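QA checklist item 7 of 12: single-chain prediction sanity check.
[x] sequence parsed
[x] length recorded as 334
[x] structure emitted
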Amino acid sequence: MRYVFLTACRNEEKILDEFLEEFNAAVTAAGVAQQSILYVVDDFSVDGSRGVLARYAERGSGVPLRMVEAPTNLGNQGAMFYGLSRIDAEAGDVLITLDCDGEDDVRQLQSIIELGRANDGKLVLIERGRRTETLLFKVFFAGYKILFRFFTRQRVVPNNFMLIPGRFLPAIKSAPLAAVHFAYAILRLGLPYVVVTRDRRSRYGGRTSQNIFTLVSHGLVGLMAFYETVIAKLFLVVLVFGGGAAAVVAAAISIPAEWLALQRTLLWSAVAAAVAAAGLFALLMAAGFALVFKVTVFNLTQIASDRTRGLEAGDRSRKPPVASSAGKHMDQRN
């Protein structure tokens, strides 16, 4: 059995050395360094990230590293899914996925591996515990978790940090939504799992490359991975809000004219309910369209990449073989 680690990076030249050093120390402490391999998907970096990875791989010390080069920028989720189809892992192996920016605490690998051993055949999903972000982000994320659990009926909110038994990899590789939200696509497969909470650390270097808007967009797109349940509940919520607004308007109209203040309050309440329903509907529908567009773009990118590789392979096969000097001498002697 091997432990196969998978992560993705883009323009992380400044932090990769720190990640690789800490990762090796954590895997060594877990006692699995001799049976481990690390795959890093370079998501079309334009800095020196590939050079850092190449130097580490050539050094030959520590956990062996295999670099997977994405054909273009696929985004973090797309890069993880792209790498998943290119790793060498068997049914008896264990895959551990994580982000390499430091926010996934690699020092927790030993406890995660031990939990996987104690729950053989089950995924280990890791929920975020305490966070280091701003108060505004924490408030938005708390609201998102409530929204997610209500619409999807899922009790866990997973992320890229997880342990996956190798026997589940064929099913995950065939899950197209994993290209836009890796963790949620795995969750919706309904595989057996256990949940553990781990605190989120600060990023290496102290500054995150994401902002609240990109994270909210990512979360809403992931929410639509459970589109069957989400759409059904969405229409139910809109119906309740719409019906409630209509009932409040009817009540306001029936109130005597001398109760003008109450009438205005009810009418404004109805307007607020209608706006909330319309806003929620528009937000989730936009997330649904974004999900469709992201899946389409990823698939088109895959097709273009495969076609390019096929054309290059065809060009090489059509080139006439170059005769060696030995072959020339043989021809002259004959």
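[x] summary fact logged: Residues 228-315 form one domain.
[ ] second reviewer sign-off
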